[in-house]
Design brief:
With about 60 residues, the protein is an alpha+beta fold. The protein is built from 2 helices and 3 strands.
Length: about 60
């Protein structure tokens, strides 16, 4: 399992975008892991967790 630790640091999507990595950078990072690994999100310093699926990815 690969865990992405998220930060809730902005109130604006534009601010978050300005400080985010690109899709290429994310692919490069994830390419280091087995392609069958599951990805989860860690929120609130590991207090809550979330999942990623195709339906939640939007432009």
């Amino acid at each position: 399992m690969v865990t992405i630790h998220t930060n809730r640091t902005y109130y604006s999507a534009i601010e978050a975008e300005q400080n985010s990595i690109t899709i290429k950078e994310l692919i490069d990072i994830l390419s280091q892991y087995d392609e069958d690994e599951k990805i989860i999100l860690s929120n609130d310093n590991g207090y809550t967790y979330g999942h990623i699926n195709k339906r939640i990815i939007t432009e």
